[in-house]
Design a protein that fits this description.
The structure holds 2 protein chains of 2 kinds. By secondary structure, chain A is an alpha+beta fold. Chain A is about 25% helix and about 20% strand. The chains are: A alpha+beta, B alpha/beta. At the A-B interface, helix 7, strand 17, helix 9 and helix 11 of A face helix 1 and helix 5 of B.
């Protein structure tokens, strides 16, 4: 079944609503366990909501509330990512993190945070006094007093990871529908009928992974929701590649009750970023860039790494976290064959694989093919499709022959990479989707040099073209 | 989708191993130098161009005036670019398009990649002529959402010229530099009708007669006004402004023009010294970099000058390269010129020798300025004038003597004008 063919009449085991990182990981876990899964996404492409803007860190969960589901899922997600990343072609940059105290009060808080880390099973944290800290990060501002190192906080590609999860899920038979919002649904005691613009989806069970719309999907399908999404905006400043060398660790502040605070870290693509802010807002769709806030972010970045003042900005972006009235994840099993995976805030990228495993392990019934009813079904051999590497952590396409030439000169994206991202079952459906798959136009010129060529290769390809139809 | 990589990037398996000169960039400066050197018979001269077609920025500027200095007739940008390419080829220059330089190495040697994969090319001399690009929306810290339809002049011109694509109908143009009026002319030729041109400072940056163009075309020019916020999710639906015209325009696009910066991404990872003022390589009056096997010319040195200026500069630096190849211009680090009160200056060093390639000091200010600009040599003013200047405008002083012991360019501000 391709994404363009009519929805099949047959029964799915599970419909996952929302193709963010959590939805992609859930789809993978269930498809690989033998379930018939369909993933429904309302946007033009996957990763279009909360998953499109984050700090791209693979956390250990050292600072999560002890004993929380979040702590467990982040730890499990971290472990599984390291276990599978190679086989899926996913990069990891093993930088480690420093939690840095800038004031006396923050310094006094370090021992308790280190103890919390140990209680969360992160036993390899260790303290650095001022001298050791300066040795570890010579570029830090003079006010840095002390820190502790969390060696297994790493950098990953926040878009390649879910793309790989879904690619593997689809290789195991999962179906994907984009531009396919669920507009209504009915549970008849044994299964669901979900209404979408592309037709009705029949499924035994539903998993709500709708991120910023998690509460609304609960309301729509169940008539109730036990949480309310309170979108929390995070703005970021990205510096040009020469700034990559200013720091080796992920530089974390001492966290507050509501946020991990402003981070300075490298990106897996060779940049340096400063962010995010934490700003509550009503709007679930748009994250507006505010110059005054970004200026403050830049100034904070220059306090942390004074040499940043001499570096060029490459990009600004803002994301929305699906926060709720509580810090803990909002995972609920409903009697109507439905599970809600809601309120997955900043740590979703790290926790996704762990969350998926958690939901799968707690699943009450078996699946159509593998329910142990003596049908003789055995799970097919696991396949490990590799996603292309676009990070600086591995060899790039431009370094091998036959790449067709460079299309995006700032990010060294080849014609062959763009062509690959525009074909196949998970082909990019929007310019934003193509950017996330290849990094075209995301470098220092922001499209000055490649907009024209990009206009050519995407002409007539996207549902929302680069150029308006009436143009 | 119809996709053909080969149509875009012709197979290029014949990179010469040891050319006399490698020129990086095929705009007016690079082609002028290449032509001069090839005509002088220095040996193989190759030009490496990362785009699909050579010619640089002018190849997308479908309006006049181009070519007066070089061809003694009025041409459009694309015709001018084609003429420069034809002249270079006639002189024996080999132009390789679709080749990206990835690294500059001592030797000199450049690392490249193209469809045939990575390679290295050694030469006797290398010229960097990679030009400049406009500042982006991010660099200008423009707030709001990030919909499609926010473009630089360069991207707009390439979209229209190469693809025949019209990205919007009623955009706002931000900026009033020469390039901003180029954007205006491009819009007009494409049937796009800008809603307004807006300028953050109190007056138009470009000199007359360009500044009169919006009035002639009936397009409002709003000075003292900035972009506060871009609105729209998938596409631009409005531009909110701040300042003198704190208003909202129902525009469907934003053209972010000017504030050029050198296309100098190869420098930070190289052994060459970068000048923090210009962002380009540090050069002496012969266009020589800190490694005397490397030369540079054109807008890489100093955003931003006209195509004609870059062409003349490319020729002059080409002559200095010719003298170097003949052994009549010896390498010498020379003396670094000090500066105060100005934001950028080129050349930054003065070396011994006559017949400079850069025959004036080119200076820029970061903010609208008024005051005394003076060239101090060994403690006394040898040239100076009372100056009233805007950022992005050309300011020149005579070149100081190479035998000085101390040189400084000084701008003593009377007052700093508000924006």
């Amino acid at each position: 079944m391709t994404e363009h063919s009519p929805l099949p009449d047959d029964l799915f085991d599970i419909a996952v609503i929302g193709a963010g990182v959590v939805g992609c990981a859930l789809t993978r876990a269930f498809a690989m366990a033998g379930a018939r899964v369909i993933l429904l996404e309302k946007a033009h492409d996957i990763l279009d909501g909360a998953s499109k803007g984050n700090s791209a860190i693979l956390h250990t969960g050292f600072d999560a509330p002890v004993g929380s589901l979040e702590a467990a899922c982040v730890a499990a997600g971290h472990a599984e990512y390291l276990d599978i990343h190679d086989r899926l072609g996913l990069p990891v940059m093993k930088t480690g993190a420093l939690v840095i105290a800038w004031t006396e009060d923050e310094e006094a808080a370090l021992p308790a945070l280190m103890e919390q880390a140990r209680q969360n099973g992160v036993n390899d944290v260790h303290f650095l006094d001022r001298t050791a800290l300066r040795e570890a990060e010579p570029g830090l501002g003079a006010a840095a007093r002390a820190a502790f190192r969390v060696p297994r906080e790493y950098l990953i590609d926040p878009w390649a990871a879910p793309l790989a999860y879904l690619t593997q899920a689809m290789a195991h038979g999962a179906a994907l529908r984009r531009n396919c919002p669920v507009t209504d649904g009915a549970f008849d005691g044994t299964g669901w009928r979900l209404t979408t613009p592309q037709g009705t989806v029949r499924t035994k069970a539903v998993i709500n992974a709708a991120g910023l719309y998690g509460d609304r999907v609960d309301q729509m399908l169940l008539g109730r929701s036990n949480f309310t999404i309170r979108p929390r905006k995070g703005q970021f400043v990205v510096y040009d590649k020469p700034a990559f060398d200013l720091a080796t660790h992920i530089l974390l502040p001492v966290p507050s009750k509501t946020t991990k605070g402003i981070v300075v870290c490298r990106t897996i693509w060779g940049n340096l970023l400063v962010g995010p802010t934490a700003e509550e807002q009503e709007d679930r769709e748009t994250a507006v860039l505010v110059p005054a806030t970004l200026d403050a972010l830049r100034r904070r970045g220059e306090e942390i790494l004074p040499a940043l003042a001499q570096h060029d900005i490459t990009a600004l972006y803002a994301g929305l976290r699906p926060a709720t009235e509580e810090k803990e994840y909002r995972v609920t099993r409903h009697p109507e064959n439905m599970v809600t995976v809601g309120g997955i805030r900043s740590t979703g990228l790290s926790a996704a694989l762990g969350l998926a495993r958690h939901i799968l392990d707690g699943w009450p019934q078996g699946f159509g093919q593998g329910d142990g009813q003596g049908t003789g079904w055995t799970a097919p051999a696991t396949v490990w499709p590799k996603v292309p590497n676009i990070s600086e952590a591995g060899p790039r396409d431009w370094q091998s022959p036959g790449h067709g030439g460079i299309l995006c000169h700032c990010e060294m994206v080849t014609e062959r990479e763009v062509a690959a991202a525009l074909t196949g079952p998970l082909a990019a459906r929007s310019l934003a989707g193509l950017k996330r798959r290849t990094r075209v136009t995301m470098g220092r010129c922001q499209g000055y040099h490649c907009a024209a060529r990009l206009g050519q290769v995407t002409d007539g390809v996207f549902s929302q073209p680069m150029v308006p139809e009436d143009g | 989708m119809v996709y053909s990589a080969s149509r875009w990037c012709p197979k290029m398996a014949d990179l010469p191993q040891n050319p006399a000169v490698v020129i990086v960039g095929s705009g007016p400066a690079g082609l002028a130098a290449a032509t001069l050197l090839a005509e002088a018979g220095v040996g193989p001269v190759i030009v490496l161009e990362r785009a699909a077609t050579p010619g640089g920025v002018p190849r997308h500027c479908a309006h006049s005036p181009y070519g007066l200095r070089e061809f003694r007739r009025l041409m459009t940008g694309p015709a001018y670019a084609r003429a420069l390419v034809a002249r270079a080829k006639a002189a024996g220059v080999t132009i390789h398009s679709g080749v990206n330089v990835t690294q500059l190495l001592p030797g000199p040697e450049v690392a490249v990649t193209s469809d045939v994969g990575p390679a290295r090319i050694a030469a006797r001399l290398v010229m960097l002529a990679t030009g400049a690009r406009e500042s982006t929306r991010a660099q200008r810290m423009i707030g709001g959402t990030k919909p499609a339809g926010v473009l630089s002049t360069g991207a707009l011109q390439a979209l229209i010229h190469e693809d025949g694509l019209i990205p919007f109908r009623r955009p706002v143009i931000l900026g009033t530099e020469l390039v901003s009026f180029s954007a205006l002319l491009t819009c007009r030729l494409a049937g796009i009708r800008p809603m307004a041109m807006i300028e953050e400072t109190g007056r138009t940056t470009a000199r007359k007669p360009s500044g009169l163009l919006p009035f002639a075309l009936g397009i409002p020019l709003l000075t003292g006004t900035s972009v506060a916020e871009v609105e729209g999710r998938d596409r631009v639906t409005g531009i909110r402004m701040a300042g003198a015209h704190a208003d909202r325009l129902g525009a469907d696009g934003l053209i972010v023009t000017g504030r050029f910066r050198p296309e100098a991404a190869l420098l930070p990872q190289s052994h060459l010294v970068r000048d923090p003022g210009t962002g380009g390589p540090e050069v002496d009056q012969f266009g020589r970099c800190s490694d005397p096997c490397y030369f540079a010319s054109g807008n890489l040195l100093r955003p931003v000058e006209t195509a004609g200026w870059c062409w003349a500069e490319g020729r002059s630096v080409g002559e200095a390269m010719l003298r170097t190849l003949k052994g009549t211009l010896a390498p010498d680090p020379g003396l670094r010129i000090g500066s105060s009160g100005v934001s950028a200056m080129v050349p930054q060093r003065i070396a011994p020798g006559t017949d400079p390639a850069l025959d004036r000091l080119q200076i820029r200010v970061a903010v609208p300025s008024r005051g005394r600009l003076s060239l101090q040599v060994d403690g006394s003013e040898v040239a100076g004038r009372d100056l009233r200047a805007l950022p992005e405008r050309r300011i020149v002083l005579p070149l100081p003597r190479p035998d000085a012991l101390q040189i400084e360019v000084r701008l003593a501000q009377d007052q700093q004008e508000g924006p």
